[in-house]
Each structure stands twice: as structure tokens, then as C-alpha cells.
Specification:
InterPro entries: Inosine/uridine_hydrolase_dom, IUNH, Ribo_hydro-like. The protein has 305 residues and is of the alpha/beta class. It has a single domain, classed as Inosine-uridine Nucleoside N-ribohydrolase, Chain A. The chain has eleven helices and twelve strands. The chain has an eight-stranded mixed β-sheet, sandwiched between helices. A two-stranded antiparallel ribbon has the order 7-8. The protein is globular and about 55 Å long. The two termini are 21 Å apart. The structure holds beta-D-ribofuranose (BDR) and calcium ion.
Length: 305
């Protein structure tokens, strides 16, 4: 059994990652921590709760986390995920979110409690994790595994020609996490771009006709539409965040290379993730370089939605 915390900025593919984690029998989803990213944190928080409710998993706790990058500001564009983060299915957040505990404190507390048994899957800017290891540096050596959807080591980025979104939104946080010594598996665009969900797949959800499948089909259609405008040559939309959940549970879905990864902060290559050949330490990051996309897609559809 994989004890998991999902750190998300829900987000359409984050919602699909939550659904996959909730339905995989091998996962015990302890909680969901949220951050800003594709939309402000109040949206990620509200959206995560609504997704869990739709899945009949409202008992899983959700925590509100970071509101902005460590050193930068964030402006939102609803182009890929919608202004509400979920393809305009939920609309504006009515009231600011109230969460019992801050996401960063929850992460620290759960890492101390479960130690090597805990897997954290982060599918958002890495601000929450960076804040957690800054506040309690000893947790770096305690946590079992951190699987991060982020970066593009061998292929182009999706925000600039170098940088992937989760890294470039808070590059200082990403650098801190990737240089911390945490046991990381980096699931970047190099592999996630190979996992494509198609219009025909979403049509099957629609046919199911349950409230949850209709909700999921509606927001995923928004994402498919955005993808088809941005990448007319692709036959679908990438399941970036669900693949990170898949890799956390089935590490043999991917081939990895151990690497010290650094995040560029220079203006002309901001957010680029490259191998740091000059770091003396043994690598603690495994970079995913190949994926068995067919096997992953089969598992995803067997469980979602
Ligand atoms: C990442 O950015 C967001 O758009 C997705 O949810 C994913 O986490 C892909 O670059
Ligand atoms: Ca995300």
C-alpha cells in the first residue's frame, strides 16, 4: 500500500490525478495539499474539494497552502485550465477558503509521522514543499519518496522553449527542492507528453452518464480544446499529473537516470531544468526518460472515472 499525499494546484489534469489516486486500490490517499498555480489557491482548494466530493471521497482532507511564489508574483491566464482552474465548470470562488491547518504544516507533520512510508506526489509549483523543507530541514532525510511532475530535461518546455510550467512559476522553490537531497523522481514533459487522452476517451465518460463522469467530461473537454488550439498536431491532451501518480505506484512504468538537476534562474533560460555536472553530491533525483505509455493509459482508464 502506498501512503500518499498529493500536492496540487487543481487544475484539470490535477483533478484527473486526484481521481486516479482515489481509485487505485494500492493507494491510501492521506490528504491533499493545495497551492496557487493554474489559478489562485482558493480555487485549487475549492476545486480539489469538489473533485473529491464528486468521487465520493469527501472524507479525504484538503489543506490550503501557499498563495504565491517565494520571490515572484504570479499572474493567471485561464487559457488551458479556465479562469476557475476547472474549465469554467465551477465559476468564481464565493468565499475565501478556510482550512484547519496550513498545507505546509500538514506536510511537515505527516512526514514526521509516516517517515519512509510516505510518498508525496507534487503536481504544482513547488512552493509548499520548499516552504516545508525550509521550516523543518530535518524532514529531508525522513520522507520516503517525492514524485514531482515538473521540468523538461531533454525536450522543450511548455511555457518557454526551455521551461515547464510547474518549475518556471516558482523557479526558486523548484531549485531549493531539487537541490535539497530529497529522494525525488522527476516526471517531466519528456515522458508526460507521451500520455495522451483523446476526444474519443472523453466521449466514453460522457456515455457513462453518471454525475461524476459528466463533470469530468465537461472540464476535460475544455483542456482538450485548449490543447488542440495550442498543439494542432497532437491527437489529445497530456496526462501530466496522473502520470506522476502512476509512477509513484508503479515505478517500473518508466526508465530513469540518476541525475543532479539544477534550475536555471538567468533571464534568458529561466526555469530550465538541466543536469548539474558540477555538484559533488551523489544524485538523489531520478529523471524519467522513457515511459510505457500504453500500460499507463490502460491502468488510468481501468480506474478513472
Ligand atoms: C503542469 O502544469 C499544469 O498546467 C499541469 O497541471 C501540470 O501540473 C504541466 O506543465
Ligand atoms: Ca498541476
Amino acid at each position: 500500500m502506498v501512503k500518499m499525499i498529493l500536492d496540487v494546484d487543481t487544475g484539470i489534469d490535477d483533478a484527473l490525478a486526484i481521481a486516479y489516486a482515489v481509485s487505485l486500490p494500492a493507494v491510501e490517499l492521506l490528504g491533499v495539499t493545495t497551492t496557487y498555480g493554474m489559478a489562485p489557491v482558493d480555487y485549487s482548494y475549492r476545486n480539489s474539494r469538489k473533485v473529491l466530493e464528486a468521487l465520493g471521497a469527501a472524507h479525504i482532507p484538503v489543506y490550503r497552502g501557499s498563495e504565491k511564489p517565494l520571490k515572484r508574483s504570479r499572474e493567471y491566464s485561464g487559457k488551458i485550465h479556465g479562469n476557475d482552474g476547472l474549465g469554467e465548470t465551477l465559476g468564481p470562488v464565493e468565499a475565501p477558503a478556510a482550512s484547519s491547518e496550513h498545507a505546509v504544516d500538514y506536510l511537515i507533520c505527516q512526514i514526521r509521522k509516516h517517515q519512509k512510508e510516505l510518498t508525496i506526489v507534487a503536481t504544482a509549483p513547488l512552493t509548499n514543499l520548499a516552504a516545508a523543507i525550509t521550516k523543518a530541514p530535518e524532514i529531508v532525510g525522513m520522507v520516503g519518496k517525492v514524485v514531482i511532475m515538473g521540468g523538461a530535461v531533454m525536450t522543450p518546455g511548455n511555457v518557454t522553449k526551455f521551461a515547464e510550467a510547474n518549475i518556471i512559476i516558482d523557479p526558486e522553490a523548484a531549485g531549493l527542492v531539487l537541490e535539497s537531497g530529497l529522494p525525488i523522481t522527476l516526471v517531466g514533459l519528456d515522458v508526460t507528453r507521451k500520455t495522451l487522452l483523446t476526444q474519443a476517451d472523453v466521449a466514453k465518460w460522457k456515455q457513462k452518464g453518471t454525475p461524476a463522469s459528466a463533470f469530468f467530461a465537461r472540464f476535460t473537454e475544455f483542456y482538450l480544446d485548449a490543447y488542440s488550439k495550442l498543439h494542432p498536431y497532437l491527437k489529445g491532451c497530456a496526462l501530466h499529473d496522473p502520470l506522476a501518480v502512476g509512477v509513484a505506484v508503479y515505478p517500473d512504468l518508466v526508465q530513469t537516470v540518476p541525475m543532479n538537476v539544477k534550475v536555471d534562474l538567468e533571464d534568458n533560460a529561466l526555469g530550465r531544468t538541466t543536469e548539474d555536472l558540477y555538484r559533488a553530491a551523489e544524485p538523489t533525483t531520478l529523471v524519467c526518460v522513457q515511459v510505457d505509455a500504453d500500460r499507463f493509459m490502460k491502468s488510468f482508464f481501468a480506474h478513472v472515472i
